[in-house]
Amino acid sequence: TMVEAPLLDTWWSARGLTPQTGSAATSPGTCPPGPPSKPEVDKVDGHSVTVKWRRPAEDGGSDIIGYCVEKKEKKAMGWVRASKKSIAELSYEVTGLTEGVEYEFRVLAENKAGFGEPSEPSMPVRTIVPDLELDVELRRTLVVRAGCSIRLFVPIKGRPTPTVTWTKEGGPVPRAVIDTTESFTIVSAENEYGIGEAVETTDPIRASQAPTPPESIIPTDVTKSSVSLAWTKPKHDGGSRITGYVLEAQKKGTDQWAHVTTVKAMDFTVKNLNENEEYIFRVMAVNHSGRSAPRESKPIAVKDSTSLPEFDLRGVCQKIVIAKAGDDIKVEIPVMGRPRPTISWQKDGAALKLTQRTNVETTAATVVLSINECNRADSGVYTMTGKNIVGSVIDNITVKERDKQTCLDCC
């Protein structure tokens, strides 16, 4: 057999071969399998990564007997085999990598007919040891009075998000509560009572940061003496659990804010307001480090009124949600309208079927569409209908799967 062009890859599929007696011919209808899914990379350090993938959509007519992982530097032309032996699992740790270099990975599946076409290359990933950004104050010896507690807050940098563990002198931290987010890690622990004579530090130690403000605040109902408000949680909690929300009010045209309430919930009805007055409300998230910046509402006139439902889709770029196969989707959309509208959903013109993977939720301020481990069947147009006594409003979002599965033509 002659190859028409030089080979840059480490695989090549020969087709149109004629089986002969005594040869290793496969059974009729069997051909190499299709490509596995686009591999994902995690557990990255300076010299190794772990690659994960899913089985091919087509097995070529016989069972998959193994996989081969290939690697290449991002700027290189040719692929190099990363696994010496056939891999039976759907993940593999690639070792012997050079620190600080960007790599791509792909996977080939094998059946009795041989190796099939390779998967799409993974996203480029740079081998690098995650950084811990230790505040200069935390590099000093921390002295705490006997019987008191300590709280340490450390920002994290790393891609993908590193796994963080805490130890004390090589062992577990006693009486500790550890909280780790994508950007911060915090350990809270009691001091060992009665050890030594201790004094407090003269300089304060930063424990965490204030959270970001709530994402939105909207009126859900208005009467001639009250306003019902709802808000959404902050994008980031500052590295510490949100303990509550502070709500304040201001008459339009004045510069004085009045405290209304502090609540743990994300909604509240402000009563005993003056009819026909306009008010501005603001809400702040609170954690152990303090308050966030405020999120203000638009001026609200206190009077019996009604309004059509309205979906705020500014947070969904061009009303399109794009996700790769296997990703989880969660779209949260603020909803306005007085009285509070009821919401119904459709997909591609038919009532949306709720399953263990697909779910919708209505909160005091938003509607939420959740799809776990999305696949091609989840792509389509999702229609929201909001209805109250004033009327109904329809709006759409489109879900698109980024990966395209290709099937092998088996003659």
Automatic annotation (TrEMBL):
Which CDD domains is this protein grouped with? FN3, Ig_Titin_like
Q: Name one GO cellular component term.
A: M band
Pfam families the record matches: fn3, I-set
> One GO MF term, please?
structural constituent of muscle
Keyword annotations from UniProtKB, A to Z: Immunoglobulin domain, Repeat
Provide the Ig-like domain boundaries: 309-400
Gene3D superfamilies for this protein:
Immunoglobulins
Domain named Fibronectin type-III is located at: 35-131, 213-305
* Annotated segments matching region Disordered: 19-43
Which InterPro entries does the UniProt entry name for this protein?
FN3_dom, FN3_sf, Ig-like_dom, Ig-like_dom_sf, Ig-like_fold, Ig_I-set, Ig_sub
* Listed GO biological process terms: cardiac muscle tissue development; sarcomere organization
Q: Which PANTHER family match?
A: MICROFIBRIL-ASSOCIATED GLYCOPROTEIN 3, TITIN
The identity of this protein, by name, is Titin
Q: Which organism is it from?
A: Seriola lalandi dorsalis
